[in-house]
Automatic annotation (TrEMBL), chains A, B, C:
The lineage of its organism: Bacteria, Pseudomonadati, Planctomycetota, Planctomycetia, Pirellulales. Belongs to the CutA family. GO terms for molecular function: copper ion binding. Pfam families: CutA1. This is Divalent-cation tolerance protein CutA. InterPro entries: Ion_tolerance_CutA, N-reg_PII-like_a/b, N-reg_PII/ATP_PRibTrfase_C. It comes from the Bacteria. GO terms for biological process: response to metal ion.
């Protein structure tokens, strides 16, 4: 894989649709990412303080370039309202050429 | 990883549920893929012509075999109604044996 | 990648929201996973007995540690009500430090 043209998919979750839209628009407007897709409400199951809990959240699926990742990782953690948000990143193994170019152009 | 039995997950988006169902059925019926899952509406945020926009879309999550990928990539781009659709592919790192066999059988 | 701190994302699907919530709660309570997110209903397209079919399902997106994977893979297959459920796993390439620690703590 050529690291200079690799794409990434980053996922985070947030508790309201308004926060999700605000974070998505901020990420795109700052050219940290090419696009963000929001789905939800999703139901999250997890353990907190020894108890199993469930809560509704919205999920952001972010597409960006691998070379933007260090900056995106740091900025997203600061922009996110949670103390410890889920921020996970997977490198995309292949993409259509036109889409790849568009993502690289938008997020570098 | 054994490339001949590797599975892939491919994602694309499309603007209506009717288009999503039509594309999904065509991919399965042509044995290009084993299954397609549609979720949505999702909200997409992106920049177009210098402006931040948002629009509703439906997302297709496609499961196929790695050996089908060159053919799937090319055919999906032709079948998709967008000029530059999102087509991204990730190789799956592991899967249950029965599911792996079923996907390989359906998409080669 | 350091295998002892690597995270994984595992996906499965199930036919009702009640089954989805029950499976998610069981996975978290048994410390096999850190969290499970449920979305749906999604529409699944696939071929069965030579016919193209579609059905509604719910999708579970599971976050756990790579070292838990052998145990999770085996247990999930037994806990799942389907004979041949979709169980696919992708290793996460990077994550925020706090989230990584939390997942590792919850699922080992």
């Amino acid at each position: 894989m050529d690291e200079s043209t690799a794409l990434i998919m980053v996922t985070t979750t947030i508790e309201s649709i308004d926060q999700a839209n605000e974070l998505a628009a901020a990420l795109v407007s700052q050219s940290l990412v090419a696009c963000v897709q929001i789905d939800g409400p999703i139901i999250s199951h997890y353990r907190w303080a020894g108890e199993i809990r469930q809560s509704n959240e919205y999920r952001l699926t972010i597409k960006s370039s691998l070379i933007s990742w260090p900056r995106l990782k740091s900025r997203l953690a600061k922009m996110h309202p949670y103390d410890e948000p889920e921020i996970i990143m997977t490198v995309v193994d292949d993409a259509s050429d036109g889409y790849r170019s568009w993502v690289i152009d938008q997020s570098t």
